[in-house]
Amino acid sequence: MSDAIVILGPTASGKSALALNLAKHIKAEIISLDSALIYKGMDIGTAKPSKEELAICPHHLIDIIDVDESYSAANFREDCIRLVSDIKARGATPIICGGTMMYYKALVDGLSPLPQTDEATRAHVQALGDSKGWTYVHSLLKDIDPILYTKLAPNDKQRVSRAYEVYLMTNKSMSSFFKDKGDKCPFSREEFVLLPKNNDRTNLRITIRERFLKMIEMGLVDEVQDLLNRYSLNLNMPSMRCVGYRQVFEYLNNVYSFEEMIEKSINATSQLAKHQMTWLRGSLFASRTILDIEYEDNLSIVLKKLNC
């Protein structure tokens, strides 16, 4: 068996349920690959595991920082490598589960030594995107960084923003830093990837809508209001850029109506799922098995593949 099991997939694809069911059959500990589950107090909108689910087996990298703090792909890589070693030393199998592909890419491929950007630069680029649109910011990359201009979607706000920020800070293209990669992943992985059959996202979008409406019923708006009452938050903070949280934040600041907030949240989550699926279909993996999201017994396929 490989050193670690990896379960990847777009949002709302059933990754966590599969990981938990697998943990009932093998001695395992779950490492969260989710950039939203790291935040304390962000429970409803992240579909954070319940106390009962957390009790099935040990979980890691959940509730590790406050919402006004930051956590990078480099932090994840370092923590994940350490955790895999610790879990194996305890005689258990690490299950890395989630959908933050930026984190996983950092783990697998290593990291380029990208410079840090300061708050003023991030705020400047955010204001530019808000005023002129992210398609405009993307167009600025055509001469600055033609490689990323071609690769990035105009509405991929996070990556477009980061590319322009790096240029403003260094006067160098972000892609120029990619030539110096860090170390590859130091442990072997057996990867399972949940995807819709024939790339049909129709049912996934229905699931996303139903799940978000359930989050609203559970009190997502009150959860965000409570965070705003306890912390000084703004939309430049990574926690408030999480899908759903950003839209509720804007609703509470009278940017959207309640109905608009719901539709924008569902659309943003669906767009996230599309980006995740594009990455998953186009990336190379160590040893991957594709699982149909709608198949009811993916656990049997996983157990057979693992010879369990």
Shape: globular
Quickly give the structural class.
Answer: alpha/beta
What Rg, in angstroms, do the CA atoms define? 19 Å
Distance between the termini: 10 Å
- Fraction of residues in H or I helices: 40-55%
What's the helix-strand series? EHEHEHEHHHHHEHHHHEH
Multimerization status? single chain
How would a crystallographer describe the biggest sheet? 6 strands, parallel
Question: How many β-strands, per DSSP?
Answer: 6
How many individual helices?
Answer: 13
How would you characterize the overall build of this protein?
The protein is α/β, with parallel strands linked by helices and 308 residues long. 50% of the residues lie in helices and 10% in strands. It has 13 helices and 6 strands. It has helices at residues 15-23, 51-54, 73-89, 101-109, 119-132, 134-144, 146-151, 157-170, 202-218, 220-230, 245-252, 258-282, 298-305, and strands at 4-8, 28-33, 59-60, 93-98, 189-195, 288-292. Strands 3-2-4-1-5-6 form a 6-stranded parallel beta sheet, with helices on both faces. Strand 2 (28-33), helix 2 and strand 3 (59-60) form a beta-alpha-beta unit. The longest helix has 25 residues, at 258-282. The radius of gyration is 19 Å and the shape is globular. The mean pLDDT is 92.
